[in-house]
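Problem 3 from the worked examples.
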Amino acid sequence: MSTLLDILKKDSKGTFHWLETANDIETAITRVLQLSSGSQDEFVVFREADLQVVATSRAIQTENETLRELTEA
């Protein structure tokens, strides 16, 4: 049985919005990286089976650029 993973976008008010579902963590991470590459928003991968955030993207501000980091929980 496959565990579905939801990809959510966190808006500036802290509200999460469902975007899509992925069948595996690799696909979910790839998709979050695609989404976050052109956005300042935070994205999370959420596993509904046990109500866990399994990965998150976040922007890290530097003097010259915004770097994207994906951390797996």
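Problem 4, a separate protein:
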Amino acid sequence: MDVDQIRLLKPQLRKYLQQFDDCFLRSDTRGHLPVYVEGQLSDLPRKNCEPIADAQGIPPRTLQQFLSLLDWNHGLMKTKLQQLIAAEHASLHSIGIIDETACPKKGEKTPGVQRQWCGATGKQDNCVVTVHLGYAVDDFHCLVDHELFLPESWSNDRPRCQRADIPDDMVHRPKTDIALELYDRSRSNGIGFAWLTFDEGYGKSVAFLDALRVRGQCFVAEVPVTCTGWIEKPRVTTRARRRGDRRAKRPRLVAGSPPFRTVRDMLEQEPELREQPWQAWHVKDGEKGPMVWEVKHVWFYPRGVDDLPQAGSHLFVARNVLEPEKIKYFVGHAPLETSRGVLLKVAFSRWRVERCFEDEKTELGFDHFEGRSYVGLIRHQTITAVTHLFLARQHQALRGEKSGANGLPGAHRRRRPGAIVVADGRRRDPLAATRRDEHPQNPAPQRRFPKKSSQTHPSSLTQSEYHPATPAKM
């Protein structure tokens, strides 16, 4: 970036921030927003209220009150942020990424702080954890929503919550429940996600995956080795177990049905996976060179919360070529014909949200918050997201638009150029011909797949157009 480009940023920043003017009823309160944002964009070593205020020659308490006490609508700011993203960065190739991040803290007054797993230090540590929803398309990525994870120790101590200005109706919830709230709120503000992806911390929740299926959302979830299901779909019946039994007829597996198995056991014992050759895929070029994973893939029926088979899904197992002992399992809820390349691209997109966390922490002071108010914490993270969106848009403008960077399917069922390249794509997958009828989006008369036949996957699946959830009307 040259001097002229830097000079142009300030009027562009002023015009950008004016889009959030109606979040403030008073002009003097509104005037603190550019002060805070410019402080985050500065080269200050610490970017919290005191050093930002000192650099601007104003009392630190002014910005502290701006975050925690003054009357302005940070919820509306978050809504307008999401509406901007929906209006200017909508795409049929968008990926939503759910993840959490932790900020180490020394004291006991920061809202939600306690000893818990802290990814920033790689151990159990005193920290605050927040759950986030990221958005990525082509070479653009940003954070669109966030919420505090309130530990049970805080939730059960309401006087402590009141001292931190935590609302009375805010209680401890699983992180998956928080993630669903972020997703629903973003959708209601117009953001559409062609895909969602997340790590096994969220993928292990059967109820969470079921909730996304109900919403009609395509996703690729990393799942733990304990994830269970069937490769051959077991039969389900509603017939009473005994003649004359008048109790409610609930769906159940037919007597003698094969038991569900863990995905790890399937890899080791099921012929469809055990005998299937590994296929190498070039995922992307990393800082240390090409990232190559070997993959096996089958059609799979996950076990639901009622112990019955869910709708058919993609199950693929990936191992790192350089570290064969490093194996990951993924479940993809998508049409049967979705190519393996698309599924892998989505699965290995989580680095985008991790990059957002890194940029906001190293450049914008995301983890520099030192207040004791829940409102202050949420406002700090909301403003940081606003600042980060400005930088992301400037970065994209200076680089120039790049089309097709993610390799996801576009309209007319054509693949756009992308980072994932199949090692050998000459042969076709037998699944597309044998199980097309077993996905709800492909209704047809059912045909059974031979029980012991091997489902080899020497090439990618036939690719078709996926159907992202339609954004809610604003």
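Solution to problem 4. DSSP finds 17 helices and 15 strands in the chain. Residues 287 and 351 are 13 Å apart (CA to CA).
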